[in-house]
Fold this sequence. Notes:
Blueprint: E1 11-19, E2 27-30, E3 37-48, E4 55-63, E5 66-76, E6 81-85, E7 91-93, E8 98-105, E9 109-119
Antiparallel strand pairs: 1-9, 2-8, 3-6, 3-7, 3-9, 4-5, 4-8
Amino acid sequence: MTEPNIRNPASIIGKLSTTTNVGTSLGQVLAAPGTNNVYKVNSIFAANTSATGSAKVSITVYRNSTDYYLAKEIVVPIEATQIISTKETYFYLQENDVLRAQKSGAGTIDVIISYELITN
Length: 120
């Protein structure tokens, strides 16, 4: 695995990932950056768009066949948004890392991720 030089990258491109109606089993919400790339994840928001039920959301980093939880069963009230991560708590995803999410409860969860693609 070759990681890009984040001190002197060839490019940094701002990106946004959107996922509507996250499922009840862990599913991908941000694909792996790919060879010679890294993502700087700046923020993650989970919104409950349901008017009738609250929900819980979990977000993981999936690496080497293992899920590592960033957030586990965070309650998102009816028609509300929960901040999972902000620019102050940014983190990097390496070339084989994937962000995954799942929900439980009656609500409908959308996930928005702001990140930077860093390449050599």
